[in-house]
Amino acid sequence: KKLIVLGGSLSDKDNHITGWVNRMCGEYKKTSTYTIFRNGKIFEHFNPKYYSSFIDEEKIDKKIVSITLENQGWLNKDLINKRYFNWVGNIYKRNKSVYEKRWRGFVYWDSYTKKQMKSCVFLINYLCENFNIKKNCVGHNTYINGIDMFEGVTYRSNFQIEFTDLNPSWDFKTFKKLIEN
User: Fold this and answer.
1) Which of 28, 79, 133, 136 is the most exposed place for a label (fewest CB within 10 A)?
2) 110 vs 8, 58, 121, 166, CA distance in Å?
3) Global confidence as pTM
4) b/e 136-174 (16+ beta carbons within 10 angstroms → b)
5) Is 150 helix (H, G, I), strand (E, B) or coil?
6) Model pLDDT, residue 91
């Protein structure tokens, strides 16, 4: 393993796990090794020595450990009723945690929690030590040509411009400092 790739669940609670189990009659392969929930709890879905189709390119997927952070992703704003909806149309209930920044065609985002940041740093330190992964960290969420040659911690949005995870509400600069120090 050479890379740790962070992505988002685009759902609330453990709904993404239910989706993985039910999608394609249980044959869905775009799962992640770990999930970090909003409360900071870490769940291992399978042994990190194995891989899934997280990036959907086998040569890349074989060398990554994937971590999904619970997060609803981009949000749509109902200007009349002054409420937000997630990408599947469900009412977003944490209005105080809406993050506003125009990026990849969207403006409003679900925020990550400090507990997630803390647990993510803990898990990455563990993985880097156990798999001898370099403690380098990309400091942004934009596309990087040739990112598959990087060794360290990246984001799914570094691989393709269609990916919106991790979203702009993640504190990339602080996270990079915590990983590299």
Assistant:
1) 79
2) 10, 30, 20, 10
3) 0.91
4) bbbeebeebeebbebebbbbbbbbeeebbbbbbbbeeee
5) coil
6) 93
